[in-house]
Design goal:
binds S-adenosylmethionine; alpha/beta; eight-stranded mixed sheet; about 25% strand; Rossmann fold
Length: about 200
Amino acid sequence: MLLDPRNLLSKAFFYRWFQGLIGREEPWKRFVEGLDILPGQRVLDIGCGPASILAQLPNDIEYFGLDHNPNYIEEAQAKYGSRGTFIVRSISAELAKEFGQFDTILAIGVLHHLDDAGAEALLAAASKVLKPDGKLVSFDGVFFDGQNPIAKFLLYLDRGRFVRTSDAYENLAKRNFPKVKSRFIHDLLAVPYSHFVMECKLRE
Ligand SMILES: C[S@@+](CC[C@H](N)C(=O)[O-])C[C@H]1O[C@@H](n2cnc3c(N)ncnc32)[C@H](O)[C@@H]1O
């Protein structure tokens, strides 16, 4: 079988290199600042990858990164070891028994890797480990009518096989979170591309 170059991205080194190549620093910084993660907060990062987001988060948070790719977790541990707890596993409601509840849960670039059943299970489990006043933030590539054809093409090439429309993402989130605030971001990459961000809460 021919080598699929996208498989290289499962290696932490290539993933970070690719992020650096196409990512735009300032808009990404603005996005992370907008997450409003404050010192002292407990943060769960589901599908944390190499935990690159830690570079922009305050030092004094309690950060837990989960990913089922051991290569990413090894890299995160090597780079940020003292700044968080990094675990090879998926999210489950039982996690709350072990680690307690969280102020902020991140699912950055994760939902589009999961089919509807997988995404719903992730969101349901996340809703159980979120503090009543906490928020879950998801962030994924998105399809919409009239989209730049290059962006559409790049989304079709994504490793995640479940890039959705904004309505499809929102419908999934609303099954477990009564309050969902969403927005599009169009300037995060140095190529035409659009992301859809949802801020999901259990109450106002
Ligand atoms: C596109 S990467 C995003 C990584 C990181 N959040 C970032 O922004 O750089 C998606 C990650 O989600 C992880 N992932 C997908 N489904 C998962 C699940 N159910 N539990 C844990 N990790 C998962 C994959 O292994 C991968 O590292």
